[in-house]
Amino acid sequence: MQFLPNLSVITRPAQQRSLMSVARQAQDILSPEFAQDPYGNYQIMRESTPLVWHEAMQSYIISRYEDVERAFKDSVFTTDNYSWQIEPVHGRTILQMSGREHAVRRALVAPAFRGKELQKKFLPVIERNSRELIDGFRQTGSADLVSQYATRFPVNVIADMLGLDKADHDKFHGWYTAVIAFLGNLSQDPEVAAAGERTRQEFAEYMLPIIQERRAHPGDDLLSALCVAEVDGTVMSDEDIKAFCSLLLAAGGETTDKAIASVFANLLRHPDQLAAVQADRSLIPRAFAETLRFTPPVHMIMRQVAEDVPVSGGVIGKGSTVTCLIGSANRDERRYADPDHFDIFRSDLNAVNAFSAAADHLAFALGRHFCVGALLAKTEVEVGVNQLLDALPGLRLADEADPSEQGVFTRGPASVRVSFDVA
Ligand code: HEM
Fold this sequence. Notes:
It is built from 18 helices and 14 strands. By secondary structure, the chain is an alpha+beta fold. α8 packs across α10.
């Protein structure tokens, strides 16, 4: 990484500076070493280089809670970056909109994801999809909670909510994996870019006929609701709906998948906390909230600044891209006591607001683009953790299981292999 002039690290006395740079230099964010231990590197970045320019990514990087929170809330940090970062794969979506256009579009889609609508219409869908997956391994005494459960559950739920055919799961999974890879293509790999663009074409060919059919014969599903939704005389075109469904599969699949896997990885590594949750299920939201802080599924989100912005002793020039490190901000020692410690009982954990725009952690971002699906994710995690704990007594990590995390853009355990008692 190349350090910016006029930042705090540069203004230290020369002798101290050379000692610091030997002892405390973060590894390159694109290196395998960084992927191995992002948290140790984040700590160095927060301390020594809270604002840094990364040449290969052509982006500034910010890592302190205060700066990342501001980037999510202050409208000088726009989401214009999504026009090149995701429009090529989804088409134009609410992520890149602002002002009234964003407000109207959000009002069109948000009702389906609010508490009442979720409980009434979609809770049975969530419960059924979770149960179907657990039935596949509840009698076996061992399972991988990632490949046999977490990677399938949220995508099945979204497909079912939209009224799509779950038999096409492998297609959906392939598409959203390509989309997430495109979004996190920090090193600009051309093959990843081409796969993302192919996905846009394939998804359009799959979805547009279904949307037209649903307009002609509306049902009780989310896709039909999107076809008839209207706010202030605005309705969604077929292209708008297709782009939103594409966003839903990626934004709601990969994220919740990693969240569920991480809740279990964190609890299984802390058997006393797992036992507490097993005994008192009202602790599940605390376990999820602490997981979102400690090991968030999305580690970085980008923004583009509309004017010069002073940040952490430097200046981000107008038009520049900024990478906001959520994974670092959530472990900022200026904000949380003992931040590298997973503790569902921590006194600075606000589990009541953790799934609303008043959240303390930054895993769902904050401000106008705060995650539309936060309550859906919470409901999925509550249902999933409850059902798994009921179905798998004596749940423990399998011998030699290694639930270590992978990824730098999105991050979660590649596998969580467990053993349990069978009645
Ligand atoms: C634990 C699970 C989840 C995490 C960590 C997560 C994370 C995020 C983050 C960080 C953003 C903000 C992006 C930005 O500001 O640039 C976001 C926005 C969004 N999320 Fe989620 N998400 C999760 C689950 C879901 C689910 C289940 C859905 C829906 C099925 C969903 C749909 C969306 C949508 C549509 C937006 C765009 C909102 C807007 O631009 O106004 N997410 N999410």
